[in-house]
């Protein structure tokens, strides 16, 4: 499965955060009185800036966002930021600096607004002129919103949506839906827009299951009031309401930034504080017990089903089945040292390099061997949903007893349920809780840690 097209926000968003942070700090240095120039003030305004941004959705600007909405976010952001700056001045400044603060705020508004709108419009021009950063879409259904959405996609190429086909479902709905799903799969379609008008729940569930199991984004066109009673996330394409099937917190740019920042800091802490001296010791012990490399490298599937090399300390003797046969209890391939490493989860520590490289996260759904992933994808409902987020060194399922060997269908079914709950309810506090439970379980030892 190919990765999704046009997902450049992973590169643009961090650059935007860094630019805004630099602007508010550099302008403070040049425009505010000397008593404001301190690490304490820099930390204070930086922290407040991003806390405000979380609450105002300042960085939640998408290809379908209206310009008036962008200006609304800017007004909210800087109104609160202005109050914060004056509050700091009132508490910690000995002199009145109202004029300087206003000058600082106005200049920051101009610079950041210009940069924000420039990126927004440059991306639109890029999509129009070069056809890049686009998503291939289909529409299925015949509700009143369908022709409006078709017109929107066709008349607004700068939004980056390419309408490939519409399936009207006027005759033989079952055959039309099957044709649509086959078309989506063979033509590498990114997103499905489904009108709920006159569509039975059986067909809706069929489309939902297909989207989940094939990593396709599914959105609904609500032509009646029933859908408004459900817990769905609404967006507007122009003035057309569109409802997302699943609200994934890590789709929001600021949450991505928070999680990625935590991953980098935590992985650096482990690499420098633990692996820097533990790796030579474990490496020497591995070499003394058996021939072969210190590290074991295996292909795994990550975000959007992309393959990456997952690293571990080698815990088995070199064999021809390492990439095809799952480890089982009392597996003769495991060395004595390897048994200890696996029991204490120390064999997983090199994956912090995967985290630092961006292939994995500290917390997330555990990645499986390629052969296992292909088998589960065919046999386990919604297994592919796990690939909407980065895989993790540890996860919610692992802290609830579903780690290691998949012995029964229950093991993988509950693992998928916990993983989906995690991606739909992510928070930094949940990550910290999972890390804490993982450490506790590693110290206590787990029954399935073999």
TrEMBL record:
The chain crosses the membrane at residues 12-31, 37-58, 78-95, 101-123, 264-286. It is a multi-pass membrane protein. The keyword Membrane applies. It is an enzyme of class 2 (transferase). InterPro entries: Bact_transf, EPS_sugar_tfrase, Undecaprenyl-P_gluc_Ptfrase. Keywords: Membrane, Transferase, Transmembrane, Transmembrane helix. It is found in: Membrane. This is Undecaprenyl-phosphate glucose phosphotransferase. Belongs to the bacterial sugar transferase family. Pfam families: Bac_transf, CoA_binding_3. Residues 259-443 form the Bacterial sugar transferase domain. Its EC number is 2.7.8.31. GO terms for cellular component: membrane. It comes from Flavobacterium stagni. GO terms for molecular function: undecaprenyl-phosphate glucose phosphotransferase activity. The keyword Membrane applies.
């Amino acid at each position: 499965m190919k990765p999704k097209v046009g997902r450049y926000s992973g590169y643009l968003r961090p650059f935007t955060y860094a630019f805004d942070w630099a602007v508010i700090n550099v302008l403070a240095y040049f425009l505010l009185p000397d008593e404001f120039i301190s690490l304490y003030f820099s930390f204070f305004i930086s922290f407040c800036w991003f806390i405000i941004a979380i609450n105002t959705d300042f960085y939640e600007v998408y290809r379908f966002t209206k310009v008036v909405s962008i200006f609304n976010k800017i007004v909210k952001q800087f109104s609160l930021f202005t109050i914060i700056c004056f509050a700091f001045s009132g508490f910690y400044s000995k002199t009145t600096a109202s004029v300087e603060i206003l000058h600082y705020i106005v200049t920051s508004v101009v610079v950041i607004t210009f940069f924000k709108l420039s990126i927004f419009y440059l991306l639109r021009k890029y999509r129009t002129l070069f056809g890049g950063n686009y998503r291939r879409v289909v529409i299925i259904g015949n509700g009143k919103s369908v022709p409006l959405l078709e017109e929107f996609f066709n008349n607004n190429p700068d939004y980056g949506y390419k309408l490939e086909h519409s399936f009207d479902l006027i005759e033989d709905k079952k055959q039309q839906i099957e044709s649509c799903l086959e078309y989506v799969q063979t033509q590498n379609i990114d997103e499905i827009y489904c009108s709920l008008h006159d569509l039975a729940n059986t067909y809706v569930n069929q489309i939902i299951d297909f989207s989940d199991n094939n990593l396709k984004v599914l959105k609904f066109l609500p032509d009646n009031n029933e859908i408004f009673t459900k817990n769905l996330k609404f967006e507007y394409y122009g003035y057309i309401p569109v409802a997302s099937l699943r609200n994934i917190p890590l789709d929001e740019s600021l949450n991505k930034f928070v999680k990625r920042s935590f991953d980098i800091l935590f992985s650096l802490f482990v690499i420098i504080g633990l692996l820097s001296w533990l790796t030579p010791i474990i490496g020497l012990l591995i070499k003394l017990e058996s021939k072969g490399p210190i590290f074991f490298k295996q292909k795994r599937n990550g975000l959007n089903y992309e393959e990456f090399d997952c690293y571990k300390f080698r815990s088995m003797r070199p064999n021809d089945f390492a990439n095809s046969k799952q480890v089982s209890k009392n597996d003769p391939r495991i060395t004595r040292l390897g048994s200890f490493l696996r029991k204490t989860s120390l064999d997983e520590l090199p994956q912090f390099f995967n985290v630092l490289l961006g292939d994995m996260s500290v917390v997330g759904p555990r990645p499986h061997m390629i052969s296992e992933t292909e088998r589960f994808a065919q046999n386990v409902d919604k297994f592919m949903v796990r690939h909407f987020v980065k895989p993790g060194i540890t996860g919610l399922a692992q802290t609830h007893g579903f780690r290691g060997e998949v012995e029964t269908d229950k093991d993988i079914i509950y693992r998928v349920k916990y993983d989906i709950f995690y991606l739909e309810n992510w928070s930094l506090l949940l990550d910290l809780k999972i890390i804490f439970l993982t450490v506790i379980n590693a110290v206590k030892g787990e029954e399935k840690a073999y």
